[in-house]
Design goal:
- The protein has an eight-stranded mixed β-sheet with strand order 2-3-1-4-8-7-5-6. Strands 11-10-9-12-13-15-14 form a seven-stranded mixed β-sheet.
- 32% of the residues lie in helices and 24% in strands.
- With 375 residues, it is α/β, with parallel strands linked by helices.
- It folds into two domains: 3-154, VC0802-like (2-Layer Sandwich), CATH 3.30.2130.30; 176-218 and 253-373, 3-Layer(aba) Sandwich (Rossmann fold), CATH 3.40.50.
- The protein starts with a strand and ends with a strand.
- Helix 2 runs parallel beside helix 7, helix 5 packs across helix 6 and helix 6 (203-212) runs parallel beside helix 8.
- Strand 12 (300-303), helix 9 and strand 13 form a beta-alpha-beta unit.
- Bound molecules: S-adenosylmethionine (SAM).
- S-adenosylmethionine binds at residues 170, 172-174, 198-201, 203-204, 259-262, 265, 288-290, 304-306, 311, 320.
Length: 375
């Protein structure tokens, strides 16, 4: 049975593993950067289709040490790449190299791997695949730390957080898989309204709607990498799609609520929600969070306030965090509130004791997801 690797951001491994278990995938193991799982190709299709938290699903194929370019070339030759695509297909190699004395240039590593792969095709068919960096039929992912190389086939194609609904960006938005992971950490199962008082492009609310409507994110996408590989099992894939669509709901018994002071951000949020097909379930309003009151009796608040590293000036933001704490205390009594904070100094200004703190990474920024129970 193949072993796959579902990648995600640091801090989301535990909720990704839970998600895999919910999909019926039981043989899992957490590792740096994601979760390994054992399964057949139908399981791989299911994870690509259903996962809200994974960023890619890889099929690891080779691990080896290489001390010079020829070692890299010769080790790549040990695996038969001609079984994945036709010789007239296209390939791309994505390489990342860390702490390696010999292999400092990742473009060189990618080129050496590409040479070994296309030479296999040329020797067998006298025809070699072309390179297409943007939209290849076969994407090979190489990671090297020191002299240890790991080579994998990417089964996802575009990263899985690219659901297809983001038509516009607001400054410092959270990626879709991070928003979904945070909602899962908050225990959200689609059972209640979600409020985001500083909603930007609306990511938390759109992901909350998809969860509540039982819409799996992959059903919004145009396609996946595995569909281009030889050996793609069309019937197994169609069965996965049918099963995923079967449980979708047509309506929700409640709404989600998004607020922001920036009218352009709200415009983007509305466009994104419309593209995701969930706009009728989200009420977006232009309002300052300082005077906000809960729009319904109970629910979940999730918020990603601006923080110094990417938006605004830290000194000016101290007041924003104090005001957010006041709004949570006065306007959201009885609510669970989750705040994604990229700055301990700013969250300290809230002067509230967090019930739990989850370490997370928002891109390169180390963050904490802080849980507050408001009484
Ligand atoms: C980090 S962004 C939120 C990004 C959002 N989570 C997304 O995925 O797009 C912070 C947002 O807070 C908004 N904001 C700043 N001060 C505000 C205030 N006093 N009241 C309401 N919104 C505010 C900004 O306009 C910005 O859109």
């Amino acid at each position: 049975m193949p072993r796959f690797f579902a990648m995600t951001s640091r801090g989301l491994g535990e909720v990704l593993e839970q998600e895999l278990h919910e999909m019926g995938i039981t043989k899992t193991e957490r590792a740096f950067g994601g979760v390994q799982f054992e399964g057949n190709w139908a399981d791989c299709y299911r994870v690509n289709l259903r996962s809200r938290i994974a960023t890619r699903v890889l099929l690891p194929i080779l691990d080896f040490p290489a001390y010079k370019p020829e070692d890299l070339y010769n080790n790549i030759l040990k695996h038969d790449f001609t079984k994945y695509i036709k010789p007239t297909g296209t390939i791309a190699v994505e390489a990342s190299v860390r702490e390696s004395g010999v292999f400092r240039d990742q473009r060189f590593v990618a080129m050496k791997i590409k040479d070994a792969v296309v030479d296999q095709f040329r020797d067998k068919y006298e025809v070699r695949p072309d390179v297409d960096a943007a939209n290849p039929d076969l994407r090979i992912v190489a990671r090297a730390v020191n002299n240890g190389f790991s080579i994998a086939i990417d089964t996802s194609g575009d990263a899985l957080f690219k659901r297809g609904y983001r038509v516009g960006f607001s400054e410092a938005h959270v990626k879709e898989h991070l928003a979904a992971g945070i909602l899962k950490m908050a225990g959200y199962t689609g059972d209640r309204p979600v409020v985001d008082p500083m909603c930007g492009s609306g990511t938390f609310l759109i992901e909350a709607c998809l969860i509540a409507l039982k819409v799996y994110p992959g059903t919004l996408r145009k396609g996946f990498g595995f569909q281009k590989l030889l050996g793609f099992q069309r019937e197994a894939w169609e069965a996965e799609v049918d099963a995923a669509l079967e449980g979708e709901l047509d309506e929700l018994p409640f709404k989600m609520y998004g607020y922001d002071v920036d009218k352009d951000a709200l415009k983007t949020a509305k466009m994104n929600a419309q593209k995701a097909g969930v706009d009728e379930w989200i009420e977006f309003s232009r309002a300052p969070m300082e005077t906000l009151k809960a729009p319904v009796e109970s629910g979940l608040m999730v918020v990603d306030p601006p923080y110094g590293e990417r938006m605004g000036d830290k000194d000016l933001l101290l007041d924003t965090y104090k005001d957010l704490a006041h709004t949570m205390k006065v306007g959201f009594n009885g609510w669970d509130c989750y705040v994604l904070s990229g700055s301990p100094e700013l969250s300290a200004a809230m002067k509230l004791k967090a019930e739990r703190k989850f370490p997370l990474y928002h891109g390169p920024i180390e963050c904490r997801l802080l849980k507050y129970k408001m009484f």
